[in-house]
Structure formats: structure tokens, C-alpha cells
Protein 1
Amino acid sequence: MTLCLARFSIDFLYRRGVPLLAALLLLGGCSSLDYYSHLARGQLQVLHASQPVDALLRDPRVDAGLKQRLGLSQQARDFASARLGLPDNRSYRRYADIQRPFVVWNLFATAEFSVKPELHCFPIAGCVAYRGYYSQGRARGAAARLQLRGFDTYLGGVEAYSTLGWFDDPLLNSMLRWNDERLVAVLFHELAHQQLYVADDTAFNESFATFVEREGLRQWQQAHGVTLVDGGEAKQREQFTALVLASRARLEQLYASDLAADAMRVAKQAEFERLRREYRALREREWGGRGRYDGWIEAPLNNAKLLPFGLYDHWVPAFAALFAEAGGDWPRFYRRAAALGRLPSVARAAALDALQNAG
């Protein structure tokens, strides 16, 4: 559900007739040629592995279970363009079994006493808070090198991505492990990134796509007479995210203080222990003693591990208010969202904040 933005930079040049090697050299100023070569190879491998979905659906040798999931994906793909006004292109009309559970691994990093991400900037796509790798081994190696330099790091596996329409993004076997509702929702989410993308504003992009995903799924379920039963997952996710964001805010205050380094390290670890205690109390009080995030919370914690939280839903209420102002009309909503995206960053944040508060 994230963007492989470095790959987008390569695509932008390659689609315009720039040979791949020349594209890599042009981009070498903001990263190493080796890294971009890795991204190009990974992208080409995914595309090479893909096959047309309609051919697989006709093939009697294809497993019936796989056909059912592929069929559902095509129904959702048709719905996305016909009913939600999302791009009508060849994305998610092909399927690739990449023989692994994640298509890329995103590496997040912060300084030892900071909750600000180390940014990675790419032509056209802008700056993002992570670096993507097709190889888990390469990602781990890059994380180890950063750790030797004193950085906190976190690796997160990614099952789906969007190249923002520059390539025909395929369905992946990693996506088909999800339940029906999540598969449909993620298709809407990734197509929303193709509909609208603003460089250097991850919170805007992800919140926009998350709103389209949620409202799109609601309309899909309504059209198909399906009622989502999430077993309280949405509430748990909201409560857990609130805990993590509160901890991150306290760490930010700590790092802005004038404590000596040794004392700050002690206070940093004490904050992570506080987060664990608050999680366990929440789990017992609200969730009947069982939580979906036990593995995450009990594993080692650091600054970088907190970075992804809040990116995907920070401005969702603002986009919900904008959708209501547009009368639930998708094309009108997209035009208004695009107008927000063209504003300077400070003015854009102020406009979103006004929508959020009004909503």
C-alpha cells in the first residue's frame, strides 16, 4: 500500500525514450548507480513474471481458488473505473507470482535522538521517508550500514505498490493472501495514487488514497449487498495508532531537551517501556486480553519503527469533508483535491486543517 517512488523516477525517463542506462546515470546524483540498477532489475523481473489475467481465467490448468481471487480482482477493477472515476488503464489486468511474500522492503531511518525520517529525494517523485529494495538481503545490508553510523532503522515488507501509472502495475501473489475486502480496498488505494499524486507530501498522498479506499469499499459493499464485519479491527487500529503517536510526540519533546546523551538514552528506553505498558493495559481493558499488535510491540523498538504511523490517515477526515462538499461526486472531488495539491505546502496544510476542523 505504499509507493515505490524511486522506481517511478526511472519510469518517467524511460517512458520518454531515454535509454535505461542513461536514465540511471542522470539519476545518479541523488543516489548510487548500483541502487538504481537494482530497482530497474527488480521492476523488470516483476513485469517479466506477469501474465494477462483474462488468459489465466480461461486456462483450465489454473487452480480454481486462484481463478476466484483473480475474478474478484477484475470485478473490483471494473468498479473502480466505472463507479469511482479512477483511471481506466491496464494496471491490475495482469498477474505476477513473484515467489515471495513481499514485493519490496522499505527501509526507514532516523538519527539516534530524532523522530524525523532521513529523507530520500528523487527527480519528479520528490522526497520520501524511506528507501525501497526488491531484495530483503540488500535492505538488511543497507540497514546494518546505517546502524554502524548510529542510526535507528526499521524494515517493513510491502505487498503492493503503485508506479503512479507509468507502468501497468500487475496484481501480485502477495496481494492475494488478503481477504476479499482488503484486496478490493487496496486496488482502490493504489489506483487513487495514479489519480492524484503530489511530490514531497506523503501524508497528503496516503490520506487521499486511504479516503478513496475506504469510501470506495463502502460503495462496493453497498452495491454488492455486503456488510463488512471487521471484528473490531478498525477500532483496535485507531487506538493502537493513537498510542504510538502519543509516544512519538513525547520522544520529540525529549529530544528537544538539553539532557546529556547518556541520560537521553535512558529516557528513550523508558519511553519505549511506557509504550509497552500502555499497550498491554489497553489490550486487557478494551480487547479482551488479545491484540493484533503483540508481535510488533514486544519486538525491539526504536525511533524509525514509529515513522510509518499517521502517514496513511492523518488527513482522511479532511478528504471526507471535501467529498461531502463535492456532493459525493467523484470527478468533482478529484478536481477539488487536485486544486489543493497545487497549493504551496503551507497553504495546503492550512486548507486541509480547515476542512478537518469543519468536518
Protein 2
Amino acid sequence: MQYRQLGRTGLRVSAFTLGTMGFGGTGWATPVGTIDVDGAREEIAIAKEAGVNLIDTADVYSAGLAEEIIGQALGRDREDWLIATKARMPMGEGPNDAGLSRHHIIRGAEASLRRLGTDYIDLYQVHEWDGHTPVEETLTALDDLVRSGKVRYVGCSNYAAWQMMKALAASDARGLERFASNQLYYSLQARDIEAEIVPACLDQGVGILVWSPIAGGLLSGKYRRGVAAPAGSRHLSDWDEPPVHDEDKLYDTIEVAVKIGESHGVSAARVSLAYIAQKPGVTSVIVGARTPSQLRDNLAAADLELTPDEIQSLDDVSGEPLRYPFWHQAKTSSDRLSAADLSQISRHL
């Protein structure tokens, strides 16, 4: 297992993170998994054996139950782990039960601490953008949590490049705690973040934590062109996260991943995970699983090294044309491109 520096901080996190959306598995999270405390203990043990040191969760996962399960499952072993959680989504029906106001952030952090059974959160992330709350209010509340010792580092999630840059500028101007990371959807199924967000993260020293790196199972290899999906599958039906805009391209990508997997004697899921883990700017890839066997297979991607030719073939089948102004920069300004620029332009030169 590799350990990578989280953004500009001195914190080192494993290249793969244990995801916990399936812990509890109530309400909307039921299709993801229904893992109880004993199941969580087993998955945590598997992750620890693989070298994982970071667990990611959120207050909204099963309305707080996932955090409670983590707290119970870790018990006295809490000090052996880094815990990341999030706040922003609705946690009640009141007018202040969602968002990134000082009120909601402080109350959310204190509630997460109680559920997790700990006195500090290693990485506290704002789960989504809040266009109604001044970013300075959000950042000041987060800074207060760090200064109080309740939070060690802060991050954002699902932030567009301009939203992240606005927050970083406000932090820098006011001497407030800076986002160490941005947790984002990134997979062979959708490489949107490469256009703006990855270069911004590289330029600003913000780590990238990846959620749903196998597109919620779409890239597992069980979804194939012309073949009925297995019984109980939630995708390509009424479950639309992530959305699939081009099924033909998705199936083409899966076929390449399956072929590469066969050459290594591994699953398409493992290929898809290894691909994302090797992309520029990626700090850690969050993996969750319904079963222990799935988790072991996913975490084994840490030992899979794809060749440059294999990466190129996956790039070619899943990539998109350069958007403006990047195609113009590739054509006219390739003599003065930074590492951030090259993260998306290099393969087009």
C-alpha cells in the first residue's frame, strides 16, 4: 500500500480508503449495502490488513447510523485510524437542518463526534456547495473547529473548480484553515474532473479523494453489452447515480477493462480502480463493498500496476475531446505548460 501526502499537509493517507455508505444501509442507502456492526468490524479488519489507514463516512449516511456503527466497530482501536466525515446534507426537516451555515456546521460536527464516539475528526469535509451561505461564514466555522481541536484538517466535496478556488482565495486572504482535499466522483465512466478540477487541485496543492471509482459497480464487469444485468442490480434502471449519458461508450470501456483484466488474471473492477489510483492528482481512492470478498478484490488493486500501453488504451476508449480553451492551448502554447496544464493536455500533444 502506498501512502500519499494529503494536499499541502504533512498527513499521509493510504492510496485506498475504506468507504462506509453501506454501513447501516437504511433509507436511500439500502441498495448500497446493509452492513451491521459485526460486518463493519470484518471490513475494517480486511482494510487494516491491506494497509488502509483512512475511513470515510458522512453524517447523512443512513441518517447518522453509519457513523454510529464505525464508532462501535472501532472501539479502542480508534487511534489506529484516520476518520473523515462530512456535513451539509439535510439531517432533519427544520430550516437550519442543512447547508453550510455556522449553525449547521458546528452542530453537525458535534453530533458526528458523539455518534463516532471520539473527541476529534481527522478530516471534516463540506459535502456539497451551498450557494446561499457566504463562503467566509463556512470557512470561519471550519477554522474554529480546527482551532478548538475538534477537527484536524478540513476538505470539500463535489466542488467545481471555481467554487474551490473561491474558498481557497478566501482562506488565504483571511488566514483561515485551507481545504486540504476535494472529494470527487471520478471513474473510467466519467472523467469530467480532468478538464478543470484536477488542474486546479494540482496547481493549488489540494488532494483528490475519489468516490465511486467503479461507477457504483458499472465498471465491475457484470454489466456487458447485450447481456442482462444480474438480478438485484441497481444500475441502468431507476438508480441514476452516476448518470449514464452514453451507454455504447460505457460498454466499449468495460470491454477494454475486461480484456486488460483477463491479461492480468484479475477483475475489471480491479483494473478500473488501479487506473484511477494512477491518475495525476489522485491522493486516495475510496472503495466500499457489500461483501468481504468484494472488498478484498477491490483493495487488491493497490498491487496492480498497469502498463503505459494499458493506461493509454483506457484513456483512448473513455476519454473526451479537449474542450476550449484547452485545445487551443495545446495547439499554440505547448511550450509553456505547467504540470497542472499537462495533467489533461499531455496526451493530446
Protein 3
Amino acid sequence: METTPNLKMPYILPSQAQKHVTHNEALRYLDALLHLSVLSRQYSSPPATAQEGDRYLVPAGAADLWEGQAGNLAAFMDGEWFFFVPLRGWIMHIADENALFIFTDSQWRALLNPQPMAGINTEADAYNRLAVASDAVLLTHNGAGHQLKINKNLRENTASLLFQSNWTGYAEMGITGENNFSIKVADDSGQWRQALRIDSASGNIAIGSVWPTAPLHVGGAIRPGNYEAGFLPDAEQSGAGALIFIKTDQVRKLAFSDGQQWLWIDNNQSVTV
């Protein structure tokens, strides 16, 4: 072999004349590739102001002396340009972007941002490009507050939080297939049911599988809590339209508030306690 297997630096051969030429060429390789850092990848032709030792990543479509060197490293040494073909696993710093890149089988990819996928204590895949295995995940603020944003592309797409047990979904909240917020739940057989929906146009809320046509629309019966007659909540604080079930030894009736007092539902008589 006349060169090293990885960097292809030339060996000094037995009885070789002018050994210093081969030795200096090997040093040139080391100087260009060790602790690899290039100035930029934005130049499509050699910069006229290049200084001794400057290094660049040659972009696609480069011209002049860089033509045909796309993806290779260009180093200006001894007054001329030398080119180096990268190998898989090389890591390079790009100074004008302050970014780290790694060479895969065919191209340079950013190590940190953007990264095609990332796994923390677990493996990411093409669908779950960010995967985290942890007891907890902390997202905290850096300023006045913090927002977690889930964005979807089209109205008919989904932007939601899905809650699973043993990889089976049991609850989902978000905007799924529409832009109205909803909460859905599923039983062990996988049957999903609408639990709550909020109309994005009106703000109306529906409980159950009905469309909200009023500020609060309940699709089914309401079972209010039980109150002893002597411990009724304040009607004014409860608000007009509040509904309760009054229970004593003699009385079991529904009452509602008109905002001032509790009234029997059956005969519109004031409740006396």
C-alpha cells in the first residue's frame, strides 16, 4: 500500500528520493482534516480573498476551480486549492453558521438543528421522529411564559393529545378532523365516544354526542348533586338557571335558581328551609 487506509496520506517508500515531498503532503492532509472546521458553505466559486489555510465546503453547482467538487472540502494551501473527499462519520464545524455537520454515506447533515429524528433514552423512527423514554418531561419557561404548540396542515387533519395504556388509546383531546375542540374516550373494545365538543365559531359547549346549539347543550339527562334543604347553596351566587336536587326526610324535589332564590320546578313555589 502506498497510502493510509482512511485519510489516504502517502507513505514514504523504501529508497524513495525527495522524501520530504511525500512527508509534507501527508502533513498537508493532517492540517486540512484534523479538527475539521470550514469558514462557509455559501461560496459557489473560490473567494478571491482566500488566505493560507482557509477551508470551505463546496456547494452544489460550484464553478471555476471548484467545478465538479460539490460536497468536497476545498483547502487553500501553498497558494493553490486542494480538494478532499469526505468519508462517513466525519464531523465538521461551519464557522459562519456556528453549526456542526456529520457526513453520512452520501451527504452532510446537521448534527443538531435541523435533525431528521432524535431519540432520548429510546429509538426514534420515521413516524415518531422525536421519541422520549422518561419518568417525566419538563417544559419550562424562558421569559414571561411557555406555550406548547401542536400545528396541523389542513382542517381535516388532526392536532391532538392521545392518552394510551399499553399502547392502546383511551382518551383524546384536540382538534381531530375539524377545527372544533373535542374530548373523546374509548372503552376496552376500542369504541370511541364523544364526551365534549366546543364549537369554534360560537364557543357553545356540548356534553355528549350532540352539536352545541346553546351555550351549554347536554345530550341526555342531567343528574344534579344532592343537597339537604337546610344547607342550600346561595341562589344568587349559584346563578340563574342552576339546578339542584333537594332532599329531606319529607321532600325530594328539583329546584332551580332564578338568580335570587331557589324555586320548585314542579309548582314554581319558593323553597323554604
